[in-house]
Amino acid sequence: GGQRKTIEAVLAKPEQIVNPGYIGVTLRAHPPRGAQIVSVMPGSPAANAGLRPGDLITTVNGTPDGGSSNATAILIDRYHPGHTIKLVIIRNSETENVNVTLSRSP
């Protein structure tokens, strides 16, 4: 019985992201609301979706960010290239929904 439990414990751990999607932004933590976009790579999925420096990402596919740039990056990394993720952003005090289709990392 002990062997089976060990295997289940290993399987229950979060798997290493094998093929994370690429969005093409640099983020800065902006507690407690989200992560602010510092820069957007030209030609990246973020640029194609119209994201701009200064935008504040508050939610990734329905999951609130909570103010950590690392949390936002981890949430985005859970999706693979080709997936479209829905971001809720705040720009100029207005809340907007932005869909971004992830690509492979360049």
Name the descriptors.
globular; 34% strand; 106 residues; alpha+beta; six-stranded antiparallel β-sheet
Structure summary:
The chain has about 110 residues and is of the alpha+beta class. It has three helices and six strands, in the order αββαββαββ. It has helices spanning about 1-10, 45-50, 70-75, and strands at about 25-30, 35-40, 55-60, 65, 85-90, 95-100.
Which helices and strands appear, and what pairs or packs with what?
Layout: H1 2-12, E1 25-30, E2 34-40, H2 45-49, E3 56-60, E4 63-64, H3 69-77, E5 84-91, E6 94-101
Antiparallel strand pairs: 1-2, 2-3, 3-4, 3-5, 5-6
Describe, in plain words, how this protein is organized in 3D.
The structure is a single chain. By secondary structure, this protein is α+β, with helices and mostly antiparallel strands. The protein is 24% helix and 34% strand. It contains three helices and six strands; from the N terminus they run αββαββαββ. Strands 1, 2, 3, 4, 5 and 6 form a six-stranded antiparallel β-sheet that branches. The chain is globular, with a radius of gyration of 16 Å. The protein starts with a helix and ends in a 5-residue tail after the last strand. The model is unreliable at 1-5 (pLDDT under 50).
Number of helices: 3
- Proportion of helical residues: 10-25%
Rg measurement, Å: 16 Å
Major sheet details: 6 strands, antiparallel
Uncertain residue ranges: 1-5
Helix/sheet category:
alpha+beta
